[in-house]
Specification:
By secondary structure, this protein is of the alpha/beta class. It has twelve helices and 19 strands. The longest helix is centred in the middle third of the chain and has 18 residues.
């Protein structure tokens, strides 16, 4: 029996129309006004938007940073994602030093297979550059992993400019996509040493040792190298007005650059690091939260189209772990925030409900643009014939309050405690199967690996 989603407004990135949507098997098979019920199960979407399933292109659902484990794993993190409308995640797969990319892929597959409740793929991290790793780049593409991640910060992950250049050439040869964490790690290391030597150990020092200029410098360096190679690239979790200005200059000279930001940089500010009783440690992430001026500049970038996508960088360590490891040294606070569950409601509330962006732009930022950038389109990211029936029936009037007590993320705190939201996923379908209703998952562990080909859109 097919499923007929009836009475709602279908939204894609440039259109909205009152249409019914018929799902059969895993695909969208019919769109039209007042479609016949036939032998279909009817889902009432009256008063709601019918949106393509959201895609989160930046998660760390299961991570050990060397001394602490994230509070979520693929099982719990994917439940939190799909319950609120995110039907696909692209997780950051990170190999151990000295191990192959193939080993890493096998590890991540074992973490996700038969456990994930949403569909998934990976960005393959490159944390060292060797002839053996270079030979594996085409093998990753053949396996359906066509995007890669590198770092200009963190000693255990950081690459050199020369290695970045060589990796870019290899990735370009297979038409892959590269994303880079852009901060100047060497100067950050020295600033941290200086602050600790001066007895400055609290979380309020975290943003002071990772100032705006060190992100903007790394963005400029990254884009300079990419322009030399001729590779279109992605900037993950961009957080500052200066970095956005660097991007706009590069684009003005014809360079192809994709920009991701995250909800925390659009809604939270660095004054939170000064909360009493070590509460500021909850908000330690890298890049850190920024100023109100940065937030306003990023919103302007979202509105103007300078920011292409909004993903989460979901990486949740319990507050208990942050206290245990970082109470005497802010550089030891496990970094990252929970967010895979709250992104749709946060962006809808602060963006669409306030009139900053349209519902069409919302769909582009959280779904369609991501699908196009990372070679998932038109299988994902759009409501059209023969696309996967990943559908969110979104109630634009629903009211809720974010709380650690009610969240599905397994973290012991919420970065948005008490935040009142407007808009909610009423029903969520994954490849034609209703998997969530009113914020509860009713068909867990139905996610699967989505094979990606190289990106023709980039």
């Amino acid at each position: 029996m097919s499923i007929l989603v009836k009475g709602g407004v279908v939204v894609n990135s440039h259109t909205r129309r009152q249409l019914d949507v018929r799902l059969d098997g895993e695909k969208i098979v019919e769109l039209g006004a007042d479609l016949a019920v036939k032998d279909s199960e009817v889902v009432d979407a009256s008063g709601c938007f019918i949106l393509p399933g959201f895609i989160d292109a930046h998660t760390h659902l299961e991570l050990n940073n060397g001394y602490a484990d994230t509070s979520d794993n693929f099982t719990t993190g994917s439940v939190a994602a799909v319950a609120k409308g995110t039907t696909t995640v692209i997780d950051m797969a990170t190999p151990d030093r000295g191990k192959s990319l193939a080993d890493c892929l096998a590890t991540w597959n074992a973490l996700a297979e038969n456990k994930a409740s949403c569909d998934y793929n990976y960005h393959m991290s490159i944390i060292e550059w060797t002839p053996a790793i270079a030979k594996e780049i085409p093998e990753m593409v053949k396996a359906g992993v066509t995007s890669f991640k590198m770092y200009l910060a963190y000693d255990n992950l950081r690459t050199t400019d020369a290695e970045l250049y060589e990796a870019m050439k290899a990735i370009k040869s297979v038409n892959g996509m590269l994303g880079v964490h852009c901060e100047n790690g060497e100067i950050i290391n020295q600033l941290q040493k200086d602050y600790l030597a001066a007895g400055k150990t609290g979380p309020e020092n975290h943003p002071l040792t990772r100032p705006n200029a060190l992100e903007a410098e790394a963005v400029n360096r990254y884009l300079t190298i990419a322009n030399t190679v001729g590779l279109a690239v992605n900037i993950v979790h961009l957080s500052t007005k200066e970095s956005l200005a660097v991007v706009k200059r590069a684009r003005a000279h014809g360079q192809k650059v994709y920009v991701e930001t995250c909800p925390q940089y659009l809604t939270l500010t660095d004054d939170l690091y000064r909360l009493p009783d070590f509460e500021g440690a909850k908000y330690v992430c890298s890049p850190p939260l920024r100023s109100q001026a940065d937030q306003e500049a990023l919103w302007q970038g979202v509105i103007a189209g300078d920011v292409n996508t909004i993903s989460t960088d979901h990486c949740d360590f319990d507050f208990a772990a942050k206290e245990k490891f970082g109470k005497a040294d802010f550089t030891k606070i496990p970094g990252g925030l929970p967010g895979v569950e709250t992104r749709p409601a946060i962006v809808y509330t602060t963006g669409v409900a306030t009139g900053k962006i349209s519902i069409e732009r919302f769909v582009a930022l959280l779904s369609e643009n991501i699908a196009k950038q990372f070679a998932l389109y038109p299988q994902k990211g759009v409501i059209q014939l023969n696309s996967d029936a990943d559908i969110v029936v979104w109630d634009p009037e629903a009211q809720d309050v974010i709380s650690q007590q009610t969240q599905l993320q397994h973290c012991d705190y919420s970065a948005y405690e008490g935040f009142q939201t407007t808009g909610k996923a009423k029903f969520v379908f994954l490849r034609g199967k209703k998997v969530a209703e009113d914020g509860k998952v009713i068909a867990p562990r139905t996610g699967r690996f989505v094979f990606r080909k190289v990106n023709q859109e980039a």
